[in-house]
Write a structure and sequence with these properties.
- This protein is of the alpha/beta class.
- The chain has 3 domains: about 95-435, Na+/H+ antiporter like fold (Up-down Bundle); about 445-595, Rossmann fold, CATH 3.40.50; about 605-750, Rossmann fold, CATH 3.40.50.620.
- The chain contains 28 helices and 10 strands.
- Strands 3-2-1-4-5-10-9-6-7-8 form a 10-stranded mixed sheet, sandwiched between helices.
- β9 (about 705-715), α28 (about 720-730) and β10 form a beta-alpha-beta unit.
- The protein is elongated and about 90 Å long.
- The two termini are about 55 Å apart.
Length: about 750
């Protein structure tokens, strides 16, 4: 392991020698900016930065430390000290050459703030609420006062513009008061404390710190650009910032969602959504610049809005994150390391002042966060954990220091001191936070909440993001729209209605189905919270052959297809051709709706009396989960019947010792319903074929909908097995089949 870690570092000297020789030859040709040198700089920063970042992560440190160290190694602190001619050849001081790398770094700042905003969970902030706000305010005020006082007493020689000491002091106060939400979140997540009460408060407080910090930095930027304190310009910046935030989190939130959705659904070019996201970031950065504050605020807010978009698919998120992490982060932080000349710390006075800066920053933030935690209702251990976590400056501090250097608020020496402080506090935080969190016990309420969230994390309905509803003009389509609206209303996620029926009626029918979905979503809004019941619905008509239409829609990231068409089944144990064509082109989970009985006259009922068969298989549990969600969404009842198909005979035994397999499975379903405060009635039918037991239960009870979790069976046509087929054809009440995503070959499948 040691050899594998050291080998990349051992290659650095040889690479530098070869690069220096080539750079010297290139530099001798012309004094003009060199593309060769730019590519060389980028290659070195990425290779060494990512290599050291890998080492840092393996020893429990954030990768950003490795990227900073790469810049320090390549800069005047080490490489320039050992071999100044070579360092100057690769990283010349000429303004034209330096501007090329600076330009990439400036774009990197915006992208880093975009990524930080995307990782900012406002729902978490709202969840912990007042406690996090109180803690954040106290955690900012104390270190801010310490940093401001330090700025007032700094020697004039350390300030680039001594006449702007007030601006420099405000900047120092802000720099010392902000934590790195990214570093904090990574360590809390590594410790499996992200969903613990104290973990949520730590991350939420860091989010608030970051948000307040970027607003303050934006205002200070405006103040610095004026040269002297100007009440009018500061008022313009403050009011402009508040107006920008107000518009962004009201109209802007809706606009960003619609733009991302439009790009995802209508553009066919590669990475179209990423293009739209980058354009949004750029436009919002320009807006903040126009109102007199720094562009980073616009990029940060754009990231928050993008991250809250309900259709930001995982693939899009991973692509954007990968580009930023693999290219822009090592270049930006490497350049920050290049700009920090640690050789100045050989001066005993500056070294002592840097140590004092680290102490003031640590004690100020630690003390402020501890006091805030105590005032916020945390106990001593929780307050210690909070204070330990909030002391990491990480990438946030480096970005702030870079901005301060670029606008002339910080001198080169002060920049080096702040970067050193960021490295020291960031490296000290992980072991401190791990030690503090390891001693925190878990109370019963927290344990119950974590168990529920863990179950939801593995659940089907809880992880849905975007269903597609395929319908025609039939009554069955209206009932399917009602079902889709109830499911979507629980989480507030968007629904797309695809009309696949007769062209002459498609527009009017599509609009009516949209209304049904929204009405069903409104049913759950009274008892919901957050975005529950607030469902965005768009309609589209089929413009090509059915199979081509479904194929085109399937590429847009839908994770459930609800099918509601007039004719569901055909003769000879076959589904209707239209249903088979739809299923053949959509590889994800299906929900096939068949309205019967009273739902033919009332396809949008006020409540549903549901029967769900369970057998212990994972797919039957999915059906039970959907049934529980539908019951929770609207008024009605839920009845559970245990059945066993051929392939379920070897199902896992019930969790409770002493219970039979059947009783254990029913108990598991009862526990599932209890998690969502849904009352159920359970029935155990033995010595009866599954389809016969289900049909018998339908005949003897008042249920009006059967929800079944079913597997797709491999074959030449769509099939869910004999049990599902018998229930679908012989049931007198409506049926909802919820299928798995992929077809399976099930040995001995009969039902």
């Amino acid at each position: 392991m040691q050899w594998s870690l050291l080998r990349p570092v051992g290659l650095v000297p040889a690479a530098l020698v070869l690069t220096t020789m080539a750079a010297g030859a290139e530099g001798g040709k012309s004094a003009a900016p060199s593309e060769f040198l730019l590519v060389t700089q980028i290659v070195l920063l990425i290779a060494i930065g990512r290599g050291l970042g890998e080492i840092m992560q393996r020893i429990g440190q954030p990768s950003v430390i490795g990227e900073l160290l790469a810049g320090i190694i390549l800069g005047p602190s080490l490489f320039g000290w050992i071999w100044p001619e070579a360092q100057a050849a690769i990283f010349p001081k000429t303004p034209e050459q330096k501007a090329m790398l600076d330009g990439i770094a400036q774009v990197g700042i915006l992208l880093l703030l975009l990524l930080t905003g995307m990782e900012t969970d406002l729902k978490l902030v709202r969840k912990v609420g007042k406690a996090a706000i109180a803690i954040s305010i106290a955690g900012i005020l104390v270190p801010f006062a310490c940093g401001f006082a330090l700025g007032e007493f700094l020697p004039d020689a350390l300030l680039p513009k001594p006449e702007q000491r007030l601006v420099a002091s405000l900047f120092m106060g802000t720099a010392l008061s902000i934590s790195s939400v990214k570093i904090v979140a990574v360590v809390v997540r590594e410790m499996n404390f992200m969903r613990r009460n104290v973990g949520q408060i730590i991350v939420a407080t860091a989010v608030i710190d970051d948000t307040i910090g970027w607003i303050i930095i934006a205002v200070i930027f405006s103040l610095a650009s004026q040269g002297t304190p100007d009440i009018a310009s500061v008022a313009k910046a403050v009011l402009g910032t508040l107006a920008f935030l107000a518009v962004s989190f009201t109209i802007g939130r809706r606009l960003v969602f619609q733009l991302i959705r439009w790009a995802n659904d209508n553009l066919v070019s590669v990475a179209a959504v990423i293009t739209v996201i980058l354009l949004l970031m750029g436009v919002m950065a320009l807006i903040t610049h126009a109102i007199g504050v720094h562009t980073v605020l616009g990029a940060f807010v754009a990231g928050i809005l993008v991250g809250e978009s309900p259709i930001l698919t995982r693939q899009i998120d991973e692509r954007l994150r990968g580009l930023i992490s693999s290219f822009f982060m090592p270049v930006f932080f490497g350049l920050a390391g290049l700009s920090a000349d640690l050789s100045v710390l050989r001066d005993p006075g500056l070294l002592m002042l840097t140590g004092l800066l680290v102490v003031i920053a640590s004690l100020g933030k630690f003390g402020g966060a501890f006091v805030g935690g105590t005032l916020g209702g945390l106990n001593t251990r929780e307050s210690l954990a909070l204070a330990s976590g909030m002391n990491a400056r990480g990438s946030t501090e480096v970005i702030i220091a870079t901005i301060g250097l670029s606008i002339g608020v910080l001198s080169q020496v002060m920049f080096t001191m702040i970067v050193t402080m960021a490295i020291v506090t960031t490296m000290a935080m992980p072991p401190m936070l791990r030690a503090a969190l390891a001693k925190l016990p878990m109370n019963e309420d927290e344990k119950e909440r974590l168990e529920r969230e863990e179950f939801e994390k593995r659940g089907f309905v809880a992880n849905l993001e975007r269903p597609l509803l395929a319908v025609d003009e039939s009554v069955n389509a209206t009932f399917a729209a009602h079902i889709a609206g109830l499911i979507a209303g629980m989480r507030g996620f968007p629904v797309t209605v695809l009309h696949i029926g007769m062209r002459a009626k498609e527009q009017a029918e599509a609009e009516s189905h949209e209304a049904v979905v929204k009405k069903a979503a409104e049913i759950v809004s009274a008892g919901g919270d957050g975005d529950a019941g607030n469902v965005d619905v768009v309609t589209r008509a089929r413009r090509a052959e059915l199979g081509e239409t479904i194929t085109a829609e399937a590429r847009k990231g839908f994770d459930l297809l609800v099918v509601g068409v007039d004719k569901v089944t055909a003769t000879k144990d076959r589904f209707d051709r239209k249903v088979e064509d739809i299923a053949a082109k959509f590889e994800g989970p299906l929900a096939i709706v068949a309205a019967k009985g009273k739902h033919l006259k009332q396809p949008a009922p006020d409540g549903l009396n549901i029967l769900v068969p369970v057998s212990g298989s994972s797919i039957s549990k999915r059906g039970a989960e959907v049934a529980v969600a539908l019951t929770q969404a609207g008024s009605g009842s839920l009845r559970v019947i245990y059945v066993a198909t051929t392939r379920d005979k070897g199902a896992q035994r019930g969790a409770s010792r002493g219970l039979s397999q059947e009783a254990g499975i029913l108990k598991d379903t009862s526990d599932l319903a209890a998690r969502y405060d849904v009352d159920i009635t359970t029935t155990l039918r033995v010595n009866r074929a599954p389809e016969a037991a289900i049909l018998r239960e339908i005949d003897t009870t008042d249920v009006d909908l059967v929800v079944m979790g079913v597997d797709r069976i491999q074959g030449n046509h769509l099939s869910f097995g004999g049990v599902a087929d018998a229930v679908l054809r012989q049931s007198k009440v409506s049926v909802l089949l919820v299928s798995s995503g992929e077809a399976r070959q099930v040995a001995g499948e009969k039902g």
